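Minutes, project check-in

Agenda point 3 was the complex the collaborators sent over. CS summarized: two entities, 843 residues total, and the question is how they sit relative to each other. Sequences were read into the notes so everyone works from the same version.
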Amino acid sequence: MNAMPPLQKQRKLSLKERYAHLTRDLGWETTYQPMDKVFPYVAYEGIKIHDWDAWEDPFRLTMDAYWKYQAEKERKLYAVIESFAQNNGHLNITDARYVNALKLFLTGVSPLEYSAHRGYAHVGRHFVGAGPRIACQMQAIDELRHAQTQIHTMSHYNKFFDGLHDARHMHDRVWYLSVPKSFFEDACTAGPFEFLTAISFSFEYVLTNLLFVPFMSGAAYNGDMATVTFGFSAQSDEARHMTLGLEIIKFMLEQDEGNVPIVQRWIDKWFWRGYRLLSLVSMMMDYMLPKRIMSWAESWEMYFEQAGDALFEDLSRYGIRKPKYHEVAAKEKHRLSHEVWSIFYNYTQAAAFHTWLPSEEEMTWLSAKYPDTFDKYYRPRFKAWSEMAAEGKRFYNQTLPQLCTTCQIPMGFTEPDDPTTICFRSAEYKGERYHFCSDGCKDIFCHEPEKYVQSWLPVHQIYMGNCGGAEVKDVLAWYHLNFGVDNFDYEGSPDQKLWDEWQAQKAANPV
Amino acid sequence: MTIDIKTATIQPRRQTYANVARRLGADRPASRYEESMFDLQATGAFHYRPTWAPEYDLFDASRTAIALEDWHVLRDPRQFYYGTYTIARARMMEATEKAFAYAEKRGRVSGVAEDWMTVLRHYLLPLRHYEWGANMNNCNITDIGFGSTITEATMFATMDRLGIAQVISRIGLLTDGGSGTSLTAAKQDWIEHPDWQGLRHAIEDLLVAPDWFEVFVAQNLVLDGFVYPLAYRAFDEAGQGHGGGAISPLTEFMLDWFDETSRWVDAVIGTAARENEANAGHLSRWTNDWAKRAREAVTPIARAVLGPAADATLDGIAADLAVRGRKLGLAV
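CS then shared the predicted structure for the full assembly.
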């Protein structure tokens, strides 16, 4: 046993040293098992870490404080959820069309929170440094929190609206949900450093304000007290996650110069992958919110172009430049949401949320927000579709779309310099031809073809007979999508019928 | 008398999510635990093989020898989801904080005999590294385990073990005047002292064990089944005659935690054992093998603290664990 020196003469620890004792000093160099067997995954990506101790803890949170703060937030959040349900809070939203944004969120985003939980558990176990490991473990449990609180928040909506009933099942099967699913599985199947670049940096730090925040602001603008309370409750978690994202990037860049080109390639890849995923958000912002926050183009300018400029200028001292193809995203910002909403209008029969054509008032808003593109390209298209519908010939696209092998979105995006021509790219690998929606997606494939040839492409899977049958109805049944209830236009849907009844009841109540 | 607040009643169209209704056998109101725990993990249509384990799917039931028809039978009797988990731990921690505040107010832990303080530092403080090993083992299960039911509970266990490592560390800081010297010494004990090498060896072997269910059994049933009763009951009792009672309120958290968590560990292992004979066989074998090893691993520290009484104490602990195992349907 070690003899203890006299206590009185010891210097008290600084807060930083004390935190180190409570966290990173818990780890030790293993000797009964070699370190590279205990931590087998930190070398194969080529990232070199010379000194794990150089890791600066981005926040000093011990478990006692974590439990206390988080429990406090949970108590408050559940009180609001409870009261929302008790008072039929869903009656106070702007319009039932709003709930379709929640459907997209619960089926498309909440499962990603869960995937993030497992992904962070992976890096939380496998990083060599105990400091970053603890930061990742905290994010792992936070992400579980977000998945669970989102399910609880939307549980009340599920009782009154369609399309929210089987989110996980749908996420693993429905054609457009393979976009977010493949995005996250791409990250989770990558090595630990790429995972953190993908999720902590690109997703959390660079893109959170364009993904998570628009849904929460949409909730605030549209009278959805439950969801916006969740958003506020998650805010301090998100702030921690963003801090971790920047910290991990700087840590990798500072540890070895050889890391810079690897990280740059990941930033390029995950920027483009994230941006393509955001196209679903763009349509939500411009088309699905009865009361809009701002346009997609405005939010791209504010949160990526302006905030991103400052960020990448800061990172330029490490030799990092702005992500490749950011200029393509800038060119696309005036058409992205219109192109994506058009795809869903075309395939409304196979979507788990309702679609509609924008009203005259909404088109006025769109014209104002997109003066160079909306009236020229999209208003005429909507006008034609609306005339067809009025004649009883509502337009449906009956052929299954070709999907981009990388992002898995139907090929509906246009050439960067020509909004009237669909952009097709292709590449050959081992005698097979693969198709892409953009140069960005093609590049990602060509760098790791052996990964992307594995893609579970929903349209291919339908043709191969792996999705319940050959008829649309069979496939939808396999998706657990209730035909004639969850899909098709909002106009004429059970959601609309009930909403109108509730509104009528409300109006009939004596003041 | 009751009061009667008039509210508009609107008939819900369904009571719960469809996946939950399928599991409950009917569309009826479900608990928050049920709604937020079932089916969160993807089970199919995986896009890419993990580059770090290409022989498996991203989530793969074949990463353990245990086989279950439905992985969601491994339920947690505490019904923890994130909210109830953090609220339960915050409550437990409140009592611990009071104990720390009380001890801190009196300068340092008064009344503990100096020679017992040396013993206490030697047996208690290295356990923070044991806890860190347990953190990694549960984190590993959260990573490669199968089904959101078991992996969400192991996530909570992961954070519990970090929290307990920190409570132990704070006791060290309390006894060394906040200098950290006791913790540095404890780490050296963990790395070098013969009393600790058996346990460190066992933990390091578990860090590389491939079958996550074996890790679950070895860590959460067997090793904890020895370490907790030994350190927080037997050693604590031995210290009562030396003023060690001043420390007891600070480790109360661990005792409460162990009692509570054992209910979950037992439910998981018992359910898996009941499902089929092959499972029961694996679980029994793991329990027996690790019990033998665990006893050997803790014998030196038990003897150092308890002297000649150590073997009888360990016999008692081993017997309790065997009773517990047999209740779960294990041949132990």
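Noted in discussion: Residues 1-8 of chain A have pLDDT under 50 and may be disordered.
Follow-up: revisit at the next meeting once the mutant set is ready.
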